[in-house]
Amino acid sequence: MAPDTRFATARTATARTATARTEMTGTEMTGVRMTGTDRISFPAGDRARIARLLDDRPAGRDMASRLDWVSAKLLGTPYLANTLIGGPEVPEALVIRLDGVDCYTFIDLARALALARDTADFIPVLKQTRYRDAQVQFDHRRHFLTDWVAFAPRNARDITATLSPHARHIRKRLNLRADGGHYIPGLPVRSRDVTFLPPQAVTPEVLDGIRTGDVIGIYTALDGLDVTHTGLAIRKRDETGREDVYFRNASSLKANRKVVDTRLVDYVRNKPGIVVLRMTGISSPGR
């Protein structure tokens, strides 16, 4: 399988800033309104669809089952890059849209849809998922997957090292390119320890330890990045009745260009490795 070509998890600010600038009219951005102190872009059609999904979501299920159910409703959603608005020179907006997702907005939406108590609760949950301290600001956006673990409120815990004694650890300087430049202008370089499993370590025993709803990051050896692609682990039975772990992801590959399920072992076979996070709940006051 050819590699996913987009550095999806390091949300490239240059492209997003250029996109945002094309949506500026005077000092306001089209499709963006103020809600309290936050700019938000949430089309009426997508608002109605979010409400239907939350109304239809089966009650009383555990987190994994809810993640499976809501993410399955996004299967087939077109892949669409550069949907977020914000940059060093462009005000950040909370963008919510279901007409297209990238690999990162897909897991953002899935987590918020699984955790929100109702429609009114969806926006606060998405804010906490996408932004550290739930502050809708470009420099607070979780641009790297490991930001989910590093910054409060934490979206997940890193379980990679618990799955295998063959986990590897490396110190990364996130956002710093090998040539000395930055992947995302306006953001600092952060030193961070990244743990990953090389593909040969993704054994049947490791797969047994991965649950439905775990976040899978495709590790990269490139300087300055932790992963280059993300998705959800989904345990389900194939046509023969055998249970297997699938990688549900918003794929930018030419053959897909949509949210698809792929057997995890097939996807990672020629990749540098995987990072595995287990989602946590909301930990803010009042929840």
Automatic annotation (TrEMBL):
TM stretches of this protein: none
Listed InterPro entries: AmiA-like, Papain-like_cys_pep_sf
Protein name listed in UniProt: Membrane protein
Pfam family, one: AmiA-like
